[in-house]
Amino acid sequence: MYQRENHLSRHTNPFPEILDDTVYNRILKDPNYWISQDLEDKIIQIISQSLDISGILYHLGTESLITNAYDLLPLDDSRIDLTEMIERLPILINRLTRTVYLNVKAISNQKVIFIFKYLPDYQDKWYDAVFFQGMLNGLAVLFELKEFSIRMTKTKLFGIHVSHKELGEDILFGADSNEYEMEWLEDNLFLSRSRLTKDDLTNRHRVMVTSRMDSQLEEISIVDVKDVVGKSRELAIENRDLEAAVEVLKSFKQELEKKQLSMAKDLRLAKNIQKGLIPEIIPDWNGIQFWTAFAPMQEVSGDYYDYFPYNMDKLGVAVCDVSGHGVPAAFITALSKLLFSNFKKPKPSETFKLINRELLDLVKQQGYTTCVYVLIHDDYKVLYSVAGHPRPILFRAKTNKAEICEGDGTFLGMFPDAGDTFLDFQIQLEPGDKLFLYTDGLTEAESDKGLAFGEERLIQIIESCAEKSIQETVETILTIHKEYTMGTDPMDDITLLGLQLSPRLPEFNLIKTKGDDAYQKKEFKEAVGFYEQAHQILPRELDTQLSYGKALAYSRNFEKAISMLESYNKFKTNHFKSHSVLGYCYYQMEMFEKAEVEWKKAHSINDSNLSNLYNLAQLYRKLNEKKKMKDVIEKMKRIEESYLHILPLEKKWESLPDE
């Protein structure tokens, strides 16, 4: 095996350091040639460094038993069974080696313990343990046992470093002997010596007669030892090839698992990044309320939606569907956010033309996106353009009817001349009107009968929700959609974005104005009452949230103010005042670490505000953090050295104990 694996010539001695060519050739030619255990150990150690030979040694043990069993048979042609052969096995061990002797201990008629003991001057070897167990397997082969077990129970070795599945489990290491347990269920075969051969009477070599008692009839056959060994060797080669294939499959599996773990980690990272790109909620804007549903098919999505403020008078809203799924699609969604943020043109068609050109340059026609882009003006005029995307659905509150809006255009990022297909369309929103933007994953999803959800069904559901808010309408659509597709796997990402011009907008404006007037007069408790009413009408209107939070703080309702301002800051408006007032609330609640965080955020937004730095200095004084307080005072001096609060702060700083 070593010669074949290393492509060596049969006449080339691969072990010149430990044996000469004469000894090497004798080993190859004469199976009865004896070598010392020391030389055997050296040869096996060299071979085992480049080959896993445990399986080979096991099968050699099996062959050795089969080959030598003939000499254990009675000379008078009488037959013996497995039990008698086991009793004669110590004779064979004594013939094969001078370092080990074998004791056999019968536990029952069909259970035996084999005890191998080394002579005092010799040391146990791992390869002996494998070889001897292979010999015991030879007994099972010779007597054609179908149900049996052979396992090592004890060994003097402290852990066998070659893994072989045949050795057994729960082996006691460091014992005083090497022991094996053999157990079998059937024992109805007998062996005897024969002077005949199967094929040629003149060719006298080792042939045995087998006899089996079956239903009172004796079945007799002749077995050539060469045939048995040949078949055993074929099985050994097949088994070795199978084990090699299993090892290869194991390595592939391990490599695949590593790649899967790596991919899962990358996907989690991509998912978290995309989660930061796609807003969880869109704030109310100028009396328009939004509600979204987003169901990615995989960890990361090819669907994308976002909103883009245009100063105070316009708001852009986009819903996109990138070709494909997974990370490549998510990459284009990230590009889309960047491009929509950069190109805020007065007409959606102009924005599309610029984005189309940029995507062509960046993606090289390796991906594209469909999109509908809506530009809402402060007078509720809506301009929109469609790029190969499902057209918006408009619900009119006056008629309680929904209809698909007009519009057409080709994909973004695929065709250089696509700009000619992008057109602008206009609608005017009235109080109570709703507009729905969605991806085709919503309407093309199928029932368990293969029927698509469809636009007509979507329109019917929208019309049935005439009296419901935009949130209730979107959630109703999703509930019915989930029931319709129950029992099927999702075929695509699903995005649904609904917006509604509040029917209570006039009422909201009146109450909000009263709250603003009370706030200006520093009548904070009265302002809180008006803002609370306005907040109930438009709960995500950011200006109201901020004013409401400040009024709560100044009326010393710190706990509720914290809740309102934290909700406001989730929209990432980066408003200096929201963090400053929130820090003040935390300070009053003696949540000093959080107060420090918020005042630092406020400072990062507006680093020239002295009142915020003054608050930080007072906080560090409270915490006896002298060095931090000194740093803040120095910052205040750099901004305005004559600021009247600096001198009192310095005196307080001097009174602090050294850190």
From TrEMBL:
The keyword Lyase does not apply. Signal peptide: none annotated. One of its GO terms (molecular function) is phosphatase activity. InterPro entries: Bact_Sigma-Reg, PPM-type-like_dom_sf, PPM-type_phosphatase-like_dom, TPR-like_helical_dom_sf, TPR_rpt. Pfam families: SpoIIE (PF07228). Keywords: Hydrolase. PROSITE patterns: PPM_2 (PS51746). The keyword Hydrolase applies. Residues 287-501 form the PPM-type phosphatase domain. PANTHER family: STAGE II SPORULATION PROTEIN E (PTHR43156:SF2), STAGE II SPORULATION PROTEIN E-RELATED (PTHR43156). This is SpoIIE-like protein phosphatase domain protein.
